[in-house]
Amino acid sequence: MPSVEDWVTRPLNVVQNLYDSRRHDEKNQETPWITEVYKYFSTKLDDETNRKLIPYLNEKLSHEQKNHSLVRFRCMIQDNFGPEYFLAKGEVGQCCYFQDDVFKDDGMENGDCMETGRSLASRNIYYCVAIPGETPWVKQNYHKRDPTPSSSGRTCGMKRIRDDDDEDGEEATVMETEQSADGDNKKRKLEDSKSELSQPKPLTKNHPLPGEDGTTCIVKVYDELPQLDSLLPNKMYDFFGVLSMEPTPSLDSLKDAVSADMADEYRAHSPPSSFTPRLHCVAVYELKQNNYMLPEYKVMEGEDFSQFKDEAANLYEEMINLMKKATLGDELAARYLLIHLVSRVTKFEPKDTPIGKVVLNLGWIPGNSGYTRFLSKFIEHFVTKLFYFPMTLQNMNELKFAPRKNYQTMRLETGMLQMPENLYFIVDETQLSPGQLKEEGVVNLRALNHLVKTNHVEYDFQFHRIPYMHTPVTLVLSEGKSMLPCDVAVRLRPQDPMPEDLDQYLSSCLAEVSKRMDALRNYLTAVSFHSFQPSAEVYEFVQADFVSTRQQSGPDAFTVDDLNMHISILKCMINLLGITPNQEHWKEIRALEKERKDRIR
Question: Rg for the chain (alpha carbons), in Å?
Fold first, then answer.
């Protein structure tokens, strides 16, 4: 059997050996030989100890990767390029799977494979991007777990998109991975001189969130992979596969195979491998969440959640105290912010109605106080994915929100609203100044409004639009009541004065819980994915209360939408407390909602 070094550093040797053994075994030809490859690597990678041996592709430059070695890539599928056909085997018994450079060993050009008469096979091509919005503390800790961490100077930093309030032209806060310009330019020169470096249009990584420049990868998945049908756009995956860094053939070398009208498509689908490497998938796991300290491939239930259930009451009080600091002493706002923080769309009803969402509008915030930036940075330390969007006129008019299909390049051009599941999305309306929305701005506002209300984004396929479900946890910050259709509006009433130095105040808040930070992060992640369901007895009481209130005060006093939101808040509350709900908890939610509504009247 291959040693650890063999299957990690030379996985193609394993593939060739399995191919040869099946080719010479005439009695065992009923199942495709490639299933043995998937079985071999799945058996290895189902063991967490073995997974830790595999280096990450994330945040690496091309010279830091070993060609044809086994790597892993934590990512979101951004686009599906469709099938790619390739020569299944070479003339000398060489297996042509899980690699891109088989033609040069066969003395052939890429365009010749259709004329050889030899069998072709197909593989599915996915364009993947590093998980959008992943927060710095998550990136840094995955970096520490990498058996071959990057030494290129790439670190988790901050970048900004344009904010009208920035006098010096700086841009609003967005998470991204920075790299030194010097190092980046040197690595670009490693690409073969025949690659498409002098293209009519500049290369783009097609990241959904403005300002991000993380790793991208073209993942090639063979038809026999068991999980093929479950690979979906906008979901997060941990792909394991053979890295391919061969130089991309130039258009000049393929002029007989690629027509002029397909040149743009070729450039979009075949960027230089130093810019976008290829990964031939041997195993894949869906990432249910990206908190490295908890199980990544499953939702915590039963015994897995018991560790938090036992300490939930204490953790809840710690988080309430922290949230009170974030809301400057406003306990009502603190409770709603915490409830909202662990809310999550759990399913969509028959009419695509999202169940479980709690879009919070924290309003009546003092303008130009810097508070919205402070709150964004505060929350960033407790969630695994976050995007802060300053809703300036310029951003509304110039950014692309909904993805659009480009039929010239046959590529889905991404938009800001193409988000991974459960990304924490902060919309800062306080940055909006008087002015006029252009046509693109009106389209963007309509798309944002539709996302907040229905959890759907309509992707533009030129001749028609297709709605895609998205499940961000959305917080809207505004100076009054938001213009967006939020589920819950809370008037902020600070009990403490606004600190003069909000950055120093943030540091002091976090310093108080530094030793408990990991426990609090794990608690919030686990709670957001867990679900205590109210008993039949509680539902009966809720129904009786609903009917009674409407009979006494009229149907507008307690609408069906109000009932659904009360139930969503109740579920979040009991998840936070780790208890089975009863009638008293329902009464507490009713009192909480009454206080909230009285405050905004």
Answer: 26
pTM for this structure? 0.88
Which residues does 489 contact at the CB level (< 8 Å), separation at least 6? Answer: 361, 363, 481, 482, 596, 600
Token pair for 439: 């046509």
Token duo for residue 427: 């919309």
Burial 119-129 (b: 16+ CB within 10 A, else e): eebebbbbbbb
Residue 599 CB partners (closer than 8 Å, separation 6+): 332, 490, 491, 493
CA distance 599 to 490: 8
What are the C-alpha distances in Å from 330 to residues 378, 426, 526? 16, 20, 26
Of residues 531 and 409, more confidently modeled:
409
CA gap 405, 390 in Å, rounded: 26
Q: Could you write out the DSSP letters of every residue in 357-378?
A: ---EEEE-PPTTSSHHHHHHHH
> Taking Cα atoms as reference points, which of 127, 70, 102, 121 lies closest to residue 225?
121
DSSP tag of 249: P
CA dist., res. 37 & res. 282, Å (int): 7
Tens of pLDDT along 366-377? Answer: 888 899 999 999
In the block, residue with structure tokens 């919309």: 427
CA–CA separation, 542 and 560 (whole Å): 12
Within 8 A by CB and 6+ apart from 473, the residues are 340, 341, 343, 344, 357, 383, 422, 423, 424, 425
Tokens 């051009």 sit on residue: 413
List alpha helices for 46-198, DSSP H: 48-51, 102-106, 136-145, 181-188
536-540, Cβ contacts within 8 angstroms, sequence gap of 24 or more: 538/581, 538/582, 538/583, 538/585, 538/586
* Whole-number Å distance between alpha carbons of 278 and 276: 7
Taking 3-state DSSP, the helix, strand and coil percentages for the chain, each rounded to the nearest 5, stand at: 40, 20, 40
Lowest mean pLDDT among 35-49, 345-359, 428-442: 345-359
Q: Which residues contact 456 (CB under 8 A, 6 or more apart)?
A: 352, 450, 467, 468, 469, 470
**Extended strands (E) in 364-487:** 386-390, 404-406, 411-413, 424-428, 456-460, 465-469, 473-477
Give the rounded percent of residues in the chain with a pLDDT score beyond 70: 83
Q: What's the rounded Cα separation, in Å, for the pair 503 and 501?
A: 6
What are 69's two structure tokens? Answer: 């070695």
Report DSSP state, residue 35.
Answer: H
Q: What residue spans of 116-253 are helical by DSSP H?
A: 136-145, 181-188
pLDDT digits (tens, 9 = 90+) for 538-579: 889 999 999 999 999 999 999 999 999 999 999 999 999 988
First-last CA distance in the chain: 73
**Residue 37 φ then ψ, to 5°:** -65, -50
Q: Within a 10 A sphere around the Cβ of 136, how many other Cβ atoms?
A: 17
Write phi, then psi, for 313 (nearest 5 degrees): -60, -45
Cα–Cα distance list, 122 to 82, 83, 94, 349 (Å) = 10, 6, 17, 37
